[in-house]
Automatic annotation (TrEMBL):
Belongs to the threonine synthase family. Its cofactor is pyridoxal 5'-phosphate. One of its GO terms (molecular function) is threonine synthase activity. It comes from Saxibacter everestensis. InterPro entries: Ser/Thr_Dehydratase, Thr_synthase-like, TrpB-like_PALP, TrpB-like_PALP_sf. NCBIfam families: thrC. Its EC number is 4.2.3.1. It comes from the Bacteria. Residues 93-395 form the Tryptophan synthase beta chain-like PALP domain. It holds the Pfam family PALP. Keywords: Lyase, Pyridoxal phosphate. This is Threonine synthase.
Amino acid sequence: MTASTSTTRDYVPSGPFAGRFGPAIALKSRETGRLTELGPFSIDPETFGPLEVAYDFGPVTRKDIEAGPASLWRYAPLLPVPRTAEERPADLSPGWTRLLKSENLARRLNLKNLWIKDDRDNPTHSFKDRVVATALAAAKTLGYTTLSCASTGNLANAVAAASARAGIDSVVFIPENLEQGKILTSAAYGTKLIAIKGNYDDVNRLCSEIADDRDDYGFVNVNLRAYYAEGSKTLGYEIAEQLGWRLPDQVVIPVASGSLLTKVDKAFQELIALGLVEAKPYRIFGAQATGCSPVAEAFDAGWDVAKPVRPDTIAKSLAIGNPADAPFVLDIVRRTGGAVAAVSDAEIVAGIRLLAETEGVFAETAGGVTVANLVKLLDDGRLDPDAETVVINTGDGLKTLDAIADHVGPAATIDPDLRIFRQTIAAL
């Protein structure tokens, strides 16, 4: 693994994988900017901090992107993947999900202009299909024969399904207390599903050890993390393109590891640098659950680093007590004038119901976190009700039915009798 202190512009790609990741030319330390060659690396050996992908983009126009497929691969010239479909493994072509104009929810909350980016439309019904697509392409390029992950549920679904489509083996690790729906929908794809006694952070520690022990396992969120995380940029790209090639004024994003929020910001910055959108101020807000809110607590306290917590929330897909990208989330929300807030489990359920009842969008618990924080941030005066706002729904409520099982159900149970129906409906 070679290193350089040069800028991206001056850097000359080297190593066995140079030229094999499309526009990506190096891995870069997120702390120091130091560049290293492309490869199966996720940690800078000097700072022990995370690495991310650095690029030398060629000319890219709106017309080029618009001519691409209705999937995240329309942005292949901006991702660390081979440029042509023939060079990538067979995949489920996620992305290009709906950006829904909200009328009813906006009216309920007195918001002037609200959009819902609805990632339920992805093949396994969450945004994780995006990150797995870029990780899978990297795994093939790097020679891994088994795809793996540590997961709070949605990633397990996405890795299992993508591996089945690509025809490669997969081994997926989850906490044993996940929602039953996510366990079953992962196992259905034929993956080797390993449940671990402990929380996500325990699972992640074990996977890091296995990644060091097995050279055939490509862990999408461990040794492939630098490439995997870039898939989240496509949410930011799509929001801008679907708004008519412009950036929104403010965005509310759920925070688990924090990678999604940081990559949406990275997407906006890349679009500005490439001249694909006009530069403008925008604000980014992070959303957590109070049962696992290390980033929100750090933001409120003015810290630069989040203190690890033990998760205790119904929002299991966000239950990461030691989020890897917390310092970068804090940097971004402060730079953009945003905030990170948290809501209770009761507020999460209310958020799920509010979105479903007003817009017909049934979100999983992470979506409930986002909507409930939208309400809270408006009530606190931190969100501008007159600004164009986008909220991101990352997954489908059918995966987390347990969260609302005690809160919704039949309004009445009656005999098949017209007279009884008339009496009942009049009383409801």
